[in-house]
Amino acid sequence: MSTIADVAARAGVSKATASRALSGGGYVSAPTREKVRAAASELSYVAHSSATSLATGRSLSVGVIMPALDRWFFAELLAGIQAGLLASGQDLVLYGIRERTAERAQLFEEVLPRRRLDGIIAVGIQPSARELERLIRVESPLVSIGAYSEGTSAVSIDDAGAARIATEHLIDLGHRDIAFLGGTADAATHAFGDERRLAGYRQAMMAAGLAAFVRHADGEPTMPGGYEAAVRMLGDRQSRPTALVAVCDEAAIGAVVGARRLGLSVPAELSIVGIDDHEHAEMFALTTVRQQPRAQGLAAVEVLRRRMDAPDAAPERQVLPSELVVRASTAAPR
Amino acid sequence: MSTIADVAARAGVSKATASRALSGGGYVSAPTREKVRAAASELSYVAHSSATSLATGRSLSVGVIMPALDRWFFAELLAGIQAGLLASGQDLVLYGIRERTAERAQLFEEVLPRRRLDGIIAVGIQPSARELERLIRVESPLVSIGAYSEGTSAVSIDDAGAARIATEHLIDLGHRDIAFLGGTADAATHAFGDERRLAGYRQAMMAAGLAAFVRHADGEPTMPGGYEAAVRMLGDRQSRPTALVAVCDEAAIGAVVGARRLGLSVPAELSIVGIDDHEHAEMFALTTVRQQPRAQGLAAVEVLRRRMDAPDAAPERQVLPSELVVRASTAAPR
DNA sequence: CCGCGCGGTGGGAGCGCTCCCATAGCCTAA
DNA sequence: TTAGGCTATGGGAGCGCTCCCACCGCGCGG
Fold first, then answer.
1. B83 near B97, Cβ under 8 Å?
2. pLDDT, tens digit, 9 for 90 and up, residues B292-332
3. CB-strand contact B51/C, under 7 Å
4. At residue B4, does pLDDT exceed 70?
5. How near does any CA of chain B get to the CA of A37, in Å?
6. Assessment of whether the complete model's pTM goes beyond 0.85
7. Which end of chain B, N or C, is less packed with Cβ atoms under 10 Å?
8. Across residues A50-72, what is the average pLDDT?
9. If we measure between CA atoms, which residue out of B16, B44, B15, B17 comes closest to residue B33?
10. What pLDDT score does A189 carry?
11. B61-157+294-320 and B159-291: same fold?
């Protein structure tokens, strides 16, 4: 591989001039710039990022901490972040992290500081004070997605609000016996705003004077989780609700499948509303409250960039809007 | 942030000794090593990766090129790669790449060479000769997953074989009118061994003397894609096959849902077999041919590590086994 | 005519690390 | 006794880049 010294020599200028010609800053005459560019391209010169990074102090890369990759929300989010970073020329360094504390400590104590990352996007993770302190030491601005921390910048939707919208839609249709599906109390499943959604459902029920009907079926926020929870809850003809608010679309779709399996017709006998607007929602004609993880990823990159430019600005909190998408999984009760 | 000079000063030794004490190589007495370690930990010293990388020539990171993130196979693969790299202390730099050639050229010409990555894992991408040449220049060993290139190391399953296994299972059950579902000819959907699977189905049909029944319904390798293709193909009572081989489980599940929608009972009236053993296969009682993307990701990391140690060794080709998993979506035709 | 500002260029220090090489003490074998 | 090897340490060059600063020539205003 050729270095900038080779390029400079070939163009007949100094290293300093070559550097200026290629990476922008300072005075370079147009002909000189052209000469250097030509030389660089003839040698197929590409600057060594470690050298650049060492000299400038910026690493041109952003760390992304993800608790999972195999769920729609996270995959979409990652795609959004990826697209945003691509546009700004930053590389994406991916750190998977199960809630295993040893790994997590290692990540914050060593791995992240080592890289001197230009920024960090933490998904669904509440960094502790000590962890934040480590990051501040290396001056990596942080933006979290979906976490509701006080002192740090964050992007999310209003989870409680989304669940309220979903619940109110059912109430408006005339339902009273509305149950909440999914949203396990188990933190190990990286409850991603799940409690907030449950809380939003409760609020809407209370506000409508339906406190007596409040109940929920635990389950993983996945399709099989929703399926099982639905089958469990709908099994008894007597006690079964007329409508379900699911913690997310995957669970909702599981519930749709489960209801069919039980011979219940959706929406005639059971209304189901989800939260997400998952790519499969259309196929199952699912009424849902849309959130756009890709947009959240892009927004996080935007916020991060602003923080990189102005590290001392006050933390920025961005709440993206939620919108009801009515399809054919909800109807008035008979 | 403190540097190794600070650590050395605090421990009362030279930079050289401090470096040796912390990163292994060379002679250091036990007490000195302890002193240095203590100093490092007191200063919460973490080596600057760019400096290390510049000095050693190794970047401690591996690039991963992914055509998509929102499909089960890719997400699982990425999780496997991630786990493998975590174990070997390498960072994962993620590059998403749609088949837009401008971006792709940029990636191979500039982005990857700039990083001086220790290795590259390319998923479902056939690097061109010129692209490989660029990588060889920067001495990044490459392992591809799912691509069937000649000169490079690769990990994959035997796609044709998997489809043959699926088809033969149906033939063994007594089916004759077996169609193939999905596997669009459209390269834009990153046909991931799809043609090979179609070919495997054909081979099995031919071998069983069922050439007359060979046919397939185009469709995206997704759940909605499989749903649509199935509805299209199963619409006509007269011409409909008694069994389907789906290009992947997502399509197969879509077909299961579509069949139910049409009032066809699976497996009594229609047998369906997929390829993947998707996490939802269990829920839909789907008979399928298992492939394990996580294992493929881990295997790719393994192969890559070997290539990093011995860059001049002959390219290594690893084909992971496929195995039939019989559930309840297949049965003898009536 | 001189001084000054400004466009343009080069020299070289320095980013933080590793690793080669020199040095030094000490123990063992001839 | 002394050469030689072996452990332990330090000095400092060098990885490839950027950027500060010095320098230079030229045009222009006083």
1. no
2. 999 999 999 999 999 998 888 899 999 999 999 999 999 99
3. yes
4. yes
5. 14
6. yes
7. C
8. 94
9. B17
10. 46
11. yes
CATH 2.30.42.10 fits B61-157+294-320, yes or no: no
Average pLDDT, chain B: 92
- What was the pLDDT predicted at B66? 93
CATH topology of domain A159-291: Rossmann fold (3.40.50)
The answer to whether B39 CB sits below 7 Å from nucleic acid chain D is no
Contacts of B293 in chain A (CB under 8 A): none
A23 Cβ contacts chain D strand, under 7 Å: yes
How many Cβ pairs closer than 8 A exist between chain A and B?
Answer: 128
pLDDT score, position A100: 67
A70, pLDDT greater than 90? no
Tell me the torsion sign for CA atoms A3, A6, A11, A12.
positive
Measured between beta carbons, the chain A residues lying within 8 angstroms of B113 are 1, 46
Beta bridge partners of B178: B243
Residues in chain A: 334
Per-residue pLDDT of A109-144, as tens digits, reads 999 999 999 999 999 887 888 888 888 888 889 999
pLDDT at A183 over 80: no
Question: CB–CB of B281/B327 below 8 Å?
Answer: yes
Q: How many angstroms away from the CA of A58 is the closest CA of chain B?
A: 10
**Six-digit token pair at A270?**
């059971």
Can you name the CATH fold of A4-56?
Answer: 434 Repressor (Amino-terminal Domain) (1.10.260)
Q: What is the pLDDT of residue B180?
A: 97
Contact A92 B91 (CB under 8 A): no
Q: Which residues of A touch B93 (CB under 8 A)?
A: 61, 91-94
DSSP string, B260-301: HHTT--TTTT-EEEEEE--TTTTTTT-EEEE--HHHHHHHHH
Nucleotides of strand C under 7 angstroms from a protein beta carbon: 7-20
Sequence-distant (6+) residues with CB within 8 A of B55 are: none
Ranges of each domain in chain B: 4-56, 61-157+294-320, 159-291
CA angle, B73 as apex, B68 and B78 as ends, to 5°?
70
